[in-house]
Amino acid sequence: MSNIVDDIKREFAKSENSLVKIILINTAVFLVLLLSKIILTLSQSSHIYGWIMDMLQLPASTTDFAYRPWTLITYFFTHDDIFHILFNMLFLYWFGKLVDEYLGAKRVIALYLLGGIFGGIIYMVIYNLLPYFQPHLEQSKMLGASAAAFAVAVGASTLLPNYTFNLIFLGPIRIKFIALFYIILSLAQTVGPNAGGNLAHLGGALVGYVFIKMLQNGTDLGKPLYAVMNGWSRLFRKRPSMQVTYREKQVYRSTSVYSSASSSATIEMPNQTEIDTILDKISKSGYESLTKEEKQKLFKASQQK
Fold first, then answer.
1. Which residues cross the membrane (predicted)?
2. How far is it, in rounded angstroms, from Cα 263 to Cα 16?
3. Residue 258: which H helix or E strand, with range?
4. CA dist., res. 64 & res. 69, Å (int)
5. d(CA 43, CA 50)
6. Kind and range of the H or E run holding 250
7. What is d(CA 120, CA 129) in angstroms, rounded to the nearest whole number?
8. How many Cβ atoms from other residues are within 10 Å of residue 170's Cβ?
9. CB of 96 within 8 A of CB of 87?
10. Which three-class secondary structure state does DSSP give residue 41?
C-alpha cells in the first residue's frame, strides 16, 4: 500500500504529466465515493451518501445551482459507476496523449477544464430555456467527465484529423471519424434518458474545436487558466531555505535560485527544409515516429498563414 502511495506522490511531483494527474484525481474521487457508499449503505445511512452526491453533481435548476456553484467544477471529477469512469478515462487518455505530445501538458488541462465548464453551462441553459426539458428541470442532475473528455478528443481530432487509431475488429481508423461518430451519437441521444449528459458532450466538443482553431490562429483561450495555475503552483511551492555564512564578522545571506518549471522550450518557426524532412518521416513511418520537438515544429508550421 505504501508503494502505491509513493508512486502517486511521485506522479504529482512531476511537472509535465497533467494528463496522469487528471486521471488520478478522477480515480481517487471515485474510490472515496465508492468506499463511502458501501460504508454508509451497510450502516443504513444511505441518505448521507445521497447528500454528498448532491453536493458534487451539477443541477439543471439555476435555483439549486445558486446554492451550490462549485458543482460546475466538481461534477466533471465525479463518477458513481465503474464503467462510466473507465470509458471516460480511457477516452481522455487516448486523445489527451496526442494533445500533450503536440501542444504540451498545460493545454490538456485547459481543454479539460474549459470543456467541462462550458458543457455544464450548455446543459443548464438548454434545460432552462427549452420547454421540452421543463418537466424534468428540478430532478435533473449531471455528473461525469464526458464533456471534458469530449473537448480533449475533438481538440485532438481538429489538430490531427488524419491521425489513426488501430481499433479492435475495425483496424486503423482516422480519429476525425471516431470523434464525428461520437458527436452524431450524442446528438441523436439529446432527446433520450441521458439528454443532459449528451447536451454537455456537444458543448465540450464545440470547445475542443474552437480552442484548437483559435490556437492555430494565434489566440490561446487557456491563458487565464495558465495564470491561475501558475499562481496556485507558487502558493504551494516550497520556499528555498536560507543559508547564513559568518566570515570575519560579516554576514552574507544567500538563497538558492529557483528556476520555475515551464513547458518545453519555445520552438522556433521551422524552415521549409525542416518541414519537408518531417513530412517525409511521417509518410515513411507515421506520426508516431516523430519526436516531441518535431511534433511541436509541425504544429508551429501549421500556424503560418
1. 19-52, 72-96, 108-130, 142-160, 167-189
2. 7
3. none
4. 9
5. 14
6. strand 250-255
7. 14
8. 9
9. no
10. helix
Helix (H) or strand (E) holding 251: strand 250-255
**Helix spans in 160-285 (H):** 175-188, 195-216, 223-235, 272-285
How is the chain split among helix, strand and coil, in percent rounded to 5?
Answer: 65, 10, 25
C-alpha cell at 148: 471534458
Cβ atoms of 208 and 154 within 8 Å: the answer is: yes
Reference 110, options 215, 32, 191, 39; nearest CA is 215
DSSP string, 132-165: GGGGGTTT-EE-SSHHHHHHHHHHHHHHSTT-EE
Judged by average pLDDT, the poorest of 9-23, 128-142, 149-163 is 9-23
Residue with cell 552574507: 252
Does the pLDDT at position 220 exceed 80? yes
Backbone φ and ψ of 181, nearest 5° = -60, -45
The angle subtended at Cα 11 by Cα 73 and Cα 228, nearest 5°, is 40
Residue 41 has pLDDT above 90, yes or no: yes
pLDDT band at 34 (very low <50, low <70, confident <90, very high): very high
* CB proximity list for 200: less than 8 A, separation 6 or greater: 119, 120, 122, 123, 142, 146, 147
The residue type found at 8 is I
Q: How far apart are CA 27 and CA 79, in angstroms?
A: 9
pLDDT tier, 262 (very low <50, low <70, confident <90, very high otherwise): very low
pTM of the model: 0.76
